């Protein structure tokens, strides 16, 4: 397995990344579907990304935020080399369709902590621009507070059971936002919940699971959260998401720094060419 943080942390807490990098004989590699969800209509989530090892094995979700930038969870890509990773966009099916993009660069939050799963956010830069079309488009990022009880939409290829078997179709699930205080109380004996996180729940038997990590939690077409961690899976406790609102400055700063670095590289290349 490439990522230590995909293993059990703090006893029962698991980030929701898939185990698809395990050996063929390990049944845990089949942990890949939302619990209690329904099929997402084709084209309903054009921002959805499947992150895959070497372009074939799905292990995490993500979302498109610009023509060359993808948003995901740090625990999905921490210490991963870009050439291990490819992004597939434009399809709801894991085994067909879509366009594959190689990855140029990965930037995890500098204060990401895999022990308590804090600052669990990363940006992934594609080698070439993604071509936008009806089934491929960026999602707007939310910079406004989310109130308890608001309806949120989760999409992903996470397991429908724990453990379970990988689905082919993208799944969706409507959830309710949970207050910070209620989420803290629910997880007080499990793991810390921070103000830079948002929680969501409907009922026992519905929620995120392995393979959903890094995927988008959306309110009215704007992304409010990134799938981070929970008590696997759908056990009646809120799932915990990185709160996008809390990291807008970090996202903008990282994008600006990449633009500057890219410009320097272009100037260097031109000078070398004479």
From TrEMBL:
Enzyme class, first EC level, given as a word: hydrolase
Keyword Electron transport: no
InterPro entries attached to this UniProt entry: Peptidase_S1 (IPR050430), Peptidase_S1_PA (IPR009003), Peptidase_S1_PA_chymotrypsin (IPR043504), Peptidase_S1A (IPR001314), Trypsin_dom (IPR001254), TRYPSIN_HIS (IPR018114), TRYPSIN_SER (IPR033116)
Chain segments annotated as coiled-coil in the UniProt record: none
Signal peptide region: 1-21
Main localisation: secreted
UniProt-recorded Gene Ontology molecular function terms: serine-type endopeptidase activity
One GO BP: protein processing
Highest taxon, organism lineage: Eukaryota
Reactions it catalyzes: Preferential cleavage: Arg-|-Xaa, Lys-|-Xaa
GO CC annotations on file: extracellular region
Alphabetized UniProt keyword annotations: Disulfide bond, Hydrolase, Protease, Secreted, Serine protease, Signal
Record flagged with keyword Nuclease: no
EC numbers on record: 3.4.21.4
A Pfam family it matches: Trypsin
Family: Belongs to the peptidase S1 family.
Protein's recorded name: trypsin
Protein's organism: Parnassius mnemosyne (clouded apollo)
């Amino acid at each position: 397995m490439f990522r230590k943080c995909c293993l059990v942390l703090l006893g029962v807490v698991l980030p929701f990344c898939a185990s698809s990098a395990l050996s063929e004989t390990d049944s845990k590699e089949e942990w890949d579907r939302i619990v209690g969800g329904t099929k997402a209509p084709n084209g309903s989530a054009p921002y959805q990304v499947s992150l895959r090892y070497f372009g074939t094995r799905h292990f995490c979700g993500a979302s498109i935020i610009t023509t060359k930038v993808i948003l995901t969870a740090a625990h999905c890509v921490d210490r991963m080399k870009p050439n291990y990773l490819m992004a597939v966009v434009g399809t709801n099916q894991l085994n067909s369709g879509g366009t594959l993009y190689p990855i140029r660069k990965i930037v995890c939050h500098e204060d990401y902590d895999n022990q308590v799963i804090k600052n669990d956010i990363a940006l992934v830069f594609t080698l070439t621009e993604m071509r936008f079309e009806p089934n491929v488009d960026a999602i707007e990022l939310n910079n406004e507070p989310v109130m308890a009880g608001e309806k949120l939409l989760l999409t992903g290829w996470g397991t429908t059971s724990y453990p379970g078997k990988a689905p082919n179709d993208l799944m969706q699930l409507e959830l309710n936002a949970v207050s910070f205080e209620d989420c803290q109380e629910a997880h007080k004996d499990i793991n810390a919940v921070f103000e830079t996180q948002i929680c969501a729940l409907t009922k026992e038997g519905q929620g995120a699971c392995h393979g959903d990590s890094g995927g988008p939690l959306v309110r009215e077409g704007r992304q409010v959260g990134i799938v981070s961690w929970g008590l696997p899976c759908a056990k009646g406790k809120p799932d915990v998401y990185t709160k996008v609102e809390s990291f807008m400055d970090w996202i903008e700063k990282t994008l600006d720094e990449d633009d500057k670095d890219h410009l320097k590289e272009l100037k260097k290349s031109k000078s070398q060419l004479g």
